[in-house]
Amino acid sequence: MHKRGIFVSALLILTLHSAAQTKSPTKSMTDPQAVHQSAIVIDTHADTPQRFVDEHWDFTDPLNGGMLNYSSAKQGNLDAQFFSIWVDPNQYPANASAHRTLSLIDGTLEQVRKHPDKLALCVSADDIIATHAQGKFAVLMGIEGGHSIENDLGLLRDYYRLGVRYMTLTWSNTNNWADSSGDIDDEKVHHHNGLTPFGKQVVAEMNRLGMMVDVSHVSDKTFWDVIATTRTPVIASHSSARALTHAARNMTDEMLLAMKKNNGVVMVNFFPAFIDENWRRAWNAQESERKQAQKALEAEYRAKGLPVPYTASDKIDREFAAKIGRAPFNSLIDHFDRVIKVAGIDHVGIGTDFDGIPVPPAGIDSAADLPKITAALMARGYTADDMHKLLGGNLLRVFREVQAASDHNP
């Protein structure tokens, strides 16, 4: 291990030991609020960067309709956030993906530059721990959708150099080298039966770099190809359990077991259509009407020669979601419970999808509500140690293992 990593790890141990001496052991082990506050809480997926770029919104500003900002993160003891760098393939042509990707990366890095007293860019597990010890908010980045690399491993390496530490191999669109779950039944789309040979090169290069491979959004065959190809643990940055909610975006029990064998981690998504079967069916029943509204919006912006801003399309989705109402909070907790029961407590985490979903489940309005997750799971019998793993420890373990296996591990 790098000398700095040894020092930081030793500092963390001393800090935790000191904290244990000043708190009531009984309360810290049994009080959900104390447990939540004592954990390093990490969320692997929020789509907030679009707000930085398109709305010129600042992370320290009021939420203004969003689900995540600096204040809500502090209230919810959210310590580290992987900001999703997502390029809508329907709004940005294939040869413009990289430019949009760089704009979103720049927008995220600018937040760190503007607020060095509050935010710090983190590119390793040690960085997260050190930033937490300093009382700052850890900013990390993950690319959502392999189309952002424009079939170029050089771009993948450039994104890594800029601080990107995971990539979701596909978004809802099949790209030139990996199939997505989002269009796997569309006969008009050219599919590859999983990963192409170049797709396997992408996974190998991510392993070499120390960039986590993210299997959320991919097709089932792509998932199994990744498991057979990767030499490091993988993550599902925002996916839930298909046994409970039959969305193709969710993971089957067989996949959860494969993630356990791979030593990876599944981060539970908060989108009602992925965590509540009744809500999913109601959402799907609106699909035709919702698509018509979105097409009308696209035509309006196309006439102006502009891409549709996410805020505009999200407004339509929020209006349709409001017609259904909120999904039950317990549906979300059921998914955490299912992943744990199948894959084990060492292979579960949080991937909220804040600012990328029209509405979270009941009881969750922003990052300030994350302590409710800890309280609900502890009410079901999970321990303080279990929660420390789920809230951030499991992701830190995978992050370390992926980076330790890179060919330039310091």
UniProtKB/TrEMBL annotation:
Record protein name field: Membrane dipeptidase
Q: Which residues form the signal peptide?
A: 1-20
GO biological processes? proteolysis
What are the record keywords, sorted? Answer: Dipeptidase, Hydrolase, Protease, Signal
- CDD domains the record matches: rDP_like
User: Recorded E.C. number(s)?
Assistant: 3.4.13.19
Pfam families per the UniProt record, alphabetical: Peptidase_M19 (PF01244)
Write one Gene Ontology MF term. metallodipeptidase activity
Source species: Tunturiibacter gelidiferens
